[in-house]
TrEMBL record:
Yippee domain location: 12-109
Regions crossing the membrane: none
Database matches in InterPro entries: Yippee (IPR034751), Yippee/Mis18/Cereblon (IPR004910), Yippee_fam (IPR039058)
Keyword line: Metal-binding, Zinc
Keyword Metal-binding: yes
UniProt keyword Zinc, yes or no: yes
Single GO MF annotation: metal ion binding
GO cellular component: ubiquitin ligase complex
Identification of the protein by name: Protein yippee-like
Length: 129
């Protein structure tokens, strides 16, 4: 395995809550109105320092989507997912965009979003609103 190169971001940053690897800039947030299994989730235009998992079809509140889970390159924690394809015409704007689950990242001020279900974390079966 080669050397790991991690991109350092400047500005208002969201980072992995486990290892503090930079993931995204707050300027790249498209929407803060998304939800996942464990609470709030944000839609980002761009995310760095992640690897992707296997493509899968996932039924969400807004319909069927093809997604890949995204993992922090620093520690391997799942931090959200990327939309590969949306099956509903009205959802096409999500294609190529990223979701970061708020309770899995630190906010720009270093804050942690705590979900009431955080103790029940088991997987990435996420639903959005």
């Amino acid at each position: 395995m080669g050397r790991l190169f991690v991109i350092s971001l400047e500005g208002s940053i969201y980072s992995c809550k486990h290892c503090r690897t930079h993931l995204a800039l707050s300027d790249d947030i498209i929407s803060k109105t998304f939800h996942c299994k464990h609470g709030k989730a944000y839609l980002f235009d761009n995310v760095v320092n992640v690897t992707v998992g296997e493509r899968e079809e996932r039924l969400m509140i807004t319909g069927m989507h093809t997604v890949v889970d995204i993992f922090c390159v620093g520690c391997g924690s799942i931090v959200g997912w990327k939309y590969e394809a949306a099956h509903e015409k009205s959802q096409k704007y999500k294609e190529g965009k990223f979701i970061l689950e708020r309770f899995k990242v630190l906010g720009p001020d270093g804050s942690n979003y705590l979900s009431g279900q955080e103790a029940l974390v088991g997987g990435s079966d996420a639903d959005e609103v």
